[in-house]
Fold each of these.
Amino acid sequence: MILSGVALALAGASCQGGNGDDAGVAEGADAVLAGEITVFAAASLSDAFAELGAAMENEGDATSIEFSFASSSALRVQIEEGAPADVFASADLVQMELAVDAGIVEAPAVFARNELVIVVPDGNPAGTESVEDLADAGLRVVLANEDVPIGRYAREVVGSLAGGLGTGFEEAVLANVVSNESDARAVLAKVELGEADAGIVYITDALVAGEAVEVIEIPDGVNVAAEYPIGVVSDADNPGGASGFIDFVLSDDGQAILREHGFTSG
């Protein structure tokens, strides 16, 4: 897919310490951590944003932050259909580009990055040792749906490997897929429960699982650098609170919390 100028601008945005004024976040309402703030965020942000939200509520003025976590594509559609949200945080540029093109999000900025890993159940019963093993006959692989970021990223990795291993590799891996899940956390759950021999998730998800899974790294040459953009929803009920939330995410304190959860700076 060729990204439009919106996504290319997002890709070039970088997080700045402090209030993030240079990162492309929409200006308008004064940024104030106050009132009720509704944040729609990618499922892979669940734990990091829960901690961010708690920190913000402690220092804000009567601030109450409500989160809705799901796949970025599902959240974007919900906002387009009128679901009340003040902030949208996506796990990829594509969904944010679509949101901006639809006029539902204003001037987003990239605030974090993530990378993909393979997870296998504790003990690795199928003996998976590398990304190439995903093509082994009979291996039960679980991915996310291809229309959500982690599912698209995973298929990009497989497609990149096919360039060196042949088209038969990609066909074999996809033939091993026994389940397509709604988001990265659902993929992780399948592997934790032993309902799959391997799955592809973000490294941040693997950290959440702890000893319930084992991690197999994906080579840098074929891995995907997932970029996470965030923006104020155009018809936000609390645009000042939304801007305040984003400022905190982009701040030194917010970035430190994200790093604790395995993300890298935007």
Note: The CA atoms of residues 83 and 128 lie 42 Å apart.
Amino acid sequence: MSAPNTSGGSWVGRTATDVAAAVRSGAVSARQVTDEHLAAIEAGDGDIHAFNLVTADAARAAADAVDRQVADGTDPGPLAGVPVALKDNLCTRGVPTTCSSRMLEGWEPPYDATVVHLLARAGAVALGKTNLDEFAMGSSTENSAFGPTRNPRDLSRVPGGSSGGSAAAVAADFAPVALGSDTGGSIRQPAALCGVVGLKPTYGLVSRYGLVAFASSLDQIGPMTRTVADTAVVLDVIAGHDPADSTSIPEKLPSYAAAVGNGVAGLRVGLVTELNADGIADDVAARVRAAAEALAAAGAEVVEVSVPAVTYGLSAYYLIAPAEASSNLARYDGVRFGLRVDAPTTAEMMTATRTAGFGPEVKRRIMLGTYALSAGYYDAYYGKAQRVRTLIARDFAAAYESVDVLLSPTSPTTAFAFGAKADPLAMYLNDVCTIPSNLAGHPAISVPFGTGDDGLPVGVQLMAPAMGEPVLLATAAVLEHAAPIVNTDPTLAGGQ
């Protein structure tokens, strides 16, 4: 467990909870906190490239507004003055939202995503938009049209993806909070590789309104922070029913921050056999075993559990997600918005636009999805994948009849070198542990738990049934407390 850096009185490296409390009490101004984080970005992001765009003027204006509220005796909200980094697939009114694609380069949405609005209403200060794999398709942030993001723990390694910029921003102390999106592990996997906390909430718990769609039945927005307590506070802000999202859950929600300290006494934790098998690096598997022992020492009963259908998760996902992507990305045709490459005919214009606007990985997935949905193959591929998805949900439900929480690795390895997984299948295998929760719609969280043999962070994954965030966060907090203390100072990153 890493302690926040509070040396020299700087607010860079402090937790969101500490920042908000200090700003609300008047102990520090939101403007000072914002200026210090903007200075950190200016000094360090040239090497890392966590951000596609830093909105310094707008951030200072938002911080000043928070300070005026404090001066007037008005509570700015639970995230008062907290700097936040936003993944560049979340619509922000009047601010370029590119999805790290040439297709949307320079496009400025006319509205805010619901989560962006909720963060602002809670007093948070948005610093800018973070880099990602183009249209959130990737596991390394190497697929961005604007260049890769580097891992702050070792600049020769990837930060994971697709929310690599968000994970790197938190790991590099550029912001205590970032938002990412998770379709098959895109919050949890980069969180694991960068050594931060990353939560994928229950599908429908957080509004997707204003999230540029990749695969609509799988996408979910969630927080990335340095601590489980911060994650819970952010979830309290962004979770809740939104009439603008037809899949939004209308239930009354508990306080997630209040659940963090509940502990694990009496809980049953299942170590998923299929996700702790071949393909998981020995050093990662060792950290998962140590996490299981830590939970047992804290009062939980740890048992091995089988969820057989998860072994088919990767195959099902790479039919369902590309199929939905093929449909969602059909709107980028050079007619309504985004890039347009002129040509003599409409068909030639569309072809030229999509050829120039999309990168290789996006084109690959569009082709995979179009093939899976084509006449004569729909039942054999897409239809069968959906049936497998149902089997995965049933097997999870059976497992949760005997345990409260499931435990597995988040990623099969620690952060890998740039170019090490150029083969698409090798890259897709990075998501083998995270994809099943997306297919089932269940919540899952990655918690840093020591390092691998190379000294780089290892994340362990906890999973719970739908709406199981309270028990998930309570268990994660116990793991966080038991985690080995490691040096996570980004200024000591290797590979420079």
Note: Residues 1-8 have pLDDT under 50 and may be disordered.
